[in-house]
């Protein structure tokens, strides 16, 4: 991920996406940032361009609709962008009782995090293979590692991201494409109530550690202590009790992701 390369960041105006954009711009990469709302994107593009002297463009597109991956791919081609780095940070959580969940919202979440993400990976993966390599970073969550009542379909979608990403990390090595998955836990700036933020990493720290791991080709990135805590809980608690414990934890530490 050297200076002069181009990174495409979906969710480029979000907490994680914008910080990925800032740290990659500081390394001298050119950027294309995607989100639905153009105004926040435009402000960020101008700021990064002025601060770091790289080329940054914004692209307003709703990726939670069928065909969005093709639309994005066609648009970046039209703009003459050769994408060397893809970071898929567009996403939102969806919590609630499964039986009462808004199905339209759930469908959009699944399009964004499952179907269209898969197509994005294939489109840009093929380009990277032709270009001789590239880097891909996917955003999953600690929720990917266990069934989580109250966040059932969101956690299941993140398990899909995790599983697909880990398979591709292996499969695409032959094409010199490095794939990593960031299994993020709560961070200091995460929304919602948390009993203690003292031991949580900042978004800056999470992004810095993720980029360092992506540089080294580490497939699964879980910064901070949260992954170790959830692994330990899985070892100590029997499989049947794990969903109950996950529900208890998410209810008492309600974060939005
Ligand atoms: N922050 C955490 O604590 C945490 C923990 C675990 C996992 N994660 C995962 O990390 C990823 C990023 O989280 P975040 O905290 O950075 O989220 P965020 O601050 O809410 O930002 C989300 C970004 O995605 C864009 N976006 C949302 N829906 C979109 C759509 N349909 N099409 C295109 N762009 C869309 C948003 O811009 P617009 O609204 O303008 O479209 C924004 O730029 C998500 O997948 C999340 O599940 C986060």
Q: What would your notes on this structure say?
A:
The chain is 48% helix and 15% strand. It has 257 residues and is an alpha/beta fold. A 7-stranded parallel beta sheet has the order 3-2-1-4-5-6-7, sandwiched between helices. NADP nicotinamide-adenine-dinucleotide phosphate binds next to helix 1, strand 2 and strand 5.
Task: Provide the fold topology.
Blueprint lengths: L5 E5 L4 H12 L3 E6 L2 H15 L3 E5 L7 H11 L6 E4 L14 H29 L2 E8 L10 H20 L5 E8 L18 H14 L3 E2 L4 H11 L5 H11 L5
Parallel strand pairs: 1-2, 1-4, 2-3, 4-5, 5-6, 6-7
Helix pairs in contact: 1-2, 1-6, 3-4, 4-5
TL;DR of this structure?
This protein is an alpha/beta fold. The chain has helices spanning 15-26, 38-52, 68-78, 103-131, 152-171, 203-216, 226-236, 242-252; strands at residues 6-10, 30-35, 56-60, 85-88, 134-141, 177-184, 220-221.
How many DSSP H or I helices? Answer: 8
Look at the structure and give the CATH class. Alpha Beta
Low-pLDDT stretches are none
Largest sheet: 7 strands, parallel
Under the CATH scheme, the architecture is 3-Layer(aba) Sandwich
Global structural class: alpha/beta
Strand order across the largest sheet = 3-2-1-4-5-6-7
The rough form would be described as: globular
Mean pLDDT: 90
The SSE string, one letter per element, is EHEHEHEHEHEHEHH
CATH level-3 fold name: Rossmann fold
Question: How many distinct domains?
Answer: 1
Instruction: Calculate the terminal CA-CA distance, rounded to whole Å.
Output: 28 Å
Which molecules are bound in this entry? NADP nicotinamide-adenine-dinucleotide phosphate
């Amino acid at each position: 991920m050297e200076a002069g390369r181009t990174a495409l960041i979906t969710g480029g105006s979000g907490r994680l996406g914008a910080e990925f954009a800032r740290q990659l711009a500081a390394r001298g990469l050119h950027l294309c940032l995607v989100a639905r709302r153009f105004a926040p994107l435009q402000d960020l593009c101008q700021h990064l361009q002025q601060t770091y002297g790289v080329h940054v463009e914004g692209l307003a597109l709703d990726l939670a609709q069928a065909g969005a991956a093709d639309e994005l791919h066609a648009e970046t081609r039209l703009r003459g962008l050769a994408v060397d780095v893809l970071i898929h940070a567009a996403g939102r959580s969806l919590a609630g009782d499964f039986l009462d969940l808004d199905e339209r919202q759930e469908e959009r979440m699944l399009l964004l995090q499952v179907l269209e993400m898969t197509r994005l990976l294939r489109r840009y993966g093929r380009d990277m293979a032709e270009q001789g390599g590239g880097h891909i970073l996917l955003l999953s969550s600690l929720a990917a590692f266990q069934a989580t009542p109250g966040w059932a379909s969101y956690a299941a979608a993140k398990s899909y991201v995790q599983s697909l990403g880990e398979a591709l990390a292996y499969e695409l090595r032959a094409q010199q494409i490095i794939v990593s998955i960031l299994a993020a836990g709560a961070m200091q700036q995460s929304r919602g109530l948390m009993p203690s933020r003292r031991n949580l990493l900042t978004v800056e720290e999470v992004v810095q550690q993720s980029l360092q791991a992506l540089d080294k080709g580490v497939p699964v990135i879980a910064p901070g202590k949260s992954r170790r805590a959830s692994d330990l809980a899985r070892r100590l608690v029997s499989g049947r009790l794990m969903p109950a414990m996950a529900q208890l934890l998410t209810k008492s530490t309600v974060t939005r992701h």
